[in-house]
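worker-3 :: picked superoxide dismutase
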Amino acid sequence: MRLSSVLSLATFGACALAQSNSTGKLGDAVVVTNNPIGKEAIALLPKTPFFGSLKHNVKGSVKATSGAKGVGVDFEIAFSNLPKEGGPFIYHIHANPVDASGNCTNTLAHLDPFIRGEDPACNSTKPATCQVGDISGKYGKITSDPFKAKFHDDFTAMSEGPGSYFLNRSIVVHFANKTRITCANFFTVSGCSGSNTTTTDSSCQSSLPPTPTNNITPYTGGVGALSVKSLALLPIVALVLAL
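worker-3 :: tokens ->
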């Protein structure tokens, strides 16, 4: 009976851990509070689609503006001329920029500094537990043509440093089956107002597309997965030792 009780408790603890750990290995995404006030960036989709069978590419842009008081980012989405089939379409911020070849595959996976992975699917009611770059997972898929949306995201950075910084990265639009349709780099379109005295960003006045980089460093300030697991298992270990 004692052994069965221990096993039952262990199973319960494992289930509870799985539910609480549907987030990144480094914990939930951190709210960004030091974005340069007044900073704006945009990603403009190219004329030619990456997906070869389309006659015309999706048109549109993703505009990003630093949030009020430097907290998070306000996004403004505008897409049109979408494929007639293959939706609802999804879009994400990817870890790498688009290189000179225009190959969207080279943008690699979603921006994911907390090492969450794509599975299980993002729970839009808990955006902090989603991949930072999973924009449509957090705020909705593309379900109309034309498509427009505005939303605020607390977890993206416009000030260099954290892994959630995205101005040296790209936006990628996909079919529902995740095939990549088109992609574009972000670039800065305005400077900073100077009112955010806590932020110094040398790129505020830059209007050039970002330089490609392959060195994407994950954010390491969260609670490690091993630490969370150890805490969850402590009551079970104590019970076994008491038997």
